[in-house]
Amino acid sequence: MTFEEIKAVFDRYVTPNYSRLPIAVVKAEGSFFHDVEGKKYIDLFPGWGVSSVGYCHKTVVSAVKSQAAKLLHVPNNFYIPEQGLLAQAIVERAFPGKVFFCNSGAEAVESALKLARIHGRNRRYKIVSMENSFHGRTMGALSATGQEKYQREFRPLVPGFTSVPFNDLGAASAAIDDETAAVIVEPVQGEGGVNVAAQDYVAGLRRITRERDVLLIFDEVQTGFGRTGEWFAFKHYGVEPDIMCMAKAIGGGMPMGAILAGEKTADLLTPGTHASTFGGNSIACAAALAVIKVIEKEKLLARGKKLGEKLSARFAEWQKRFPMVKETRGLGAMWGVELAVEGKPVVDACLKKGVNINCTHGTVLRMLPALNVSDETLEEGLRVVEEAMSETLRE
Question: In whole angstroms, what is the distance from residue 300 CA to residue 293 CA?
Fold first, then answer.
């Protein structure tokens, strides 16, 4: 099929709820994807953060093939060995607790919110979230998302949700009352503009939630599994949340989400309180175990930190060179370059030149390269982005 034929099928049969790029992808490997017409692209935003070990890593593909040949699916009223092994692997790399598996980041957030309300025992039900946060598009996750543009078509939202300014400890403290069940925060806001939580802010959230018997939920859907140079971003802050949400990179391209419930809440999800038909299925778990193996074998946590140093230095140069670059910020291999003008023209110019990046919040160029991207590929990708900026940014 040609691109035009594929697009015609989508126009006729697929709901128009995505702003799609004018590309039909048919193959991908590492930090590259190929379109239906044979053009090869460098991807500096692979899978919206899903492909942290690159597209179609041979270890992950091999694990999926092997597991599919043995067992595709059984329901969760059976013991699934791969699920248990993955839960153990997550706990050993995070903090003591128990894991519930689902299929996406939004489902993980929904699970965390339900768990917080169970812990509140009907008396505490309110959730405090942050402005510019993004937690998903299902109704609970959407109610926690601190962005009016995503909520306005779906009101009334779930009652009990309040959003306060990010990195403002006083605002968070003032929003907590005797009916508050939990505070939910992204250590680094992704869709909200790659905003990094301050050290004293996170420490303060942990202190006030503990003092007031309120749960602290970290949404690590985008920051987890090595993205920031640690297994999870909470490790940068020296505190542990009560509940942690995971997805995206966990499955290496297979759909998977999860929450890690700390010891305070680990046993509250009893039979009948929550479930997922496909959550923790053997194929997704085999893929996730392979992702962990790749991260450790290829030393990708250290690589994530090194990428952070490279990107920080490079983007600082851009800020000096381009007057339209207002600020650069990030952690590990998760970065945003905020412009004084719309970023879409830069993204479009990059795509025409064979490099994929993202623009969020209208003005923030977002890059989340694969942790195992080669220096040569990264340099070529950044060179193209820089070239596109030179051509499109005007005072």
Answer: 10
Provide the 10 A C-beta neighbour count for residue 159.
8
Tens digits of residue pLDDT in 134-163: 999 999 999 999 999 999 999 999 999 999
CATH number of 58-297: 3.40.640.10
In this prediction, residue 394 carries a pLDDT of 72
pTM for the predicted model, two decimal places? 0.97
Nearest residue to 227 via CA among 315, 307, 287: 307
Average pLDDT over residues 179-183: 98
DSSP string computed for 325-362: EEEEEEETTEEEEEESS-SHHHHHHHHHTTEE-EEETT
Backbone angles phi, psi at 57, to 5 degrees: -60, 135
Beta-bridge partners for 338: 327, 364
Please report how the helices 300-321 and 282-297 are oriented relative to each other, as an axis angle in degrees rounded to 10.
Answer: 70
- Please report, for the chain, the start and end positions of each structural domain, with discontinuous segments joined by +: 58-297
> Are 263 and 96 spatial neighbours (Cβ–Cβ below 8 Å)?
yes
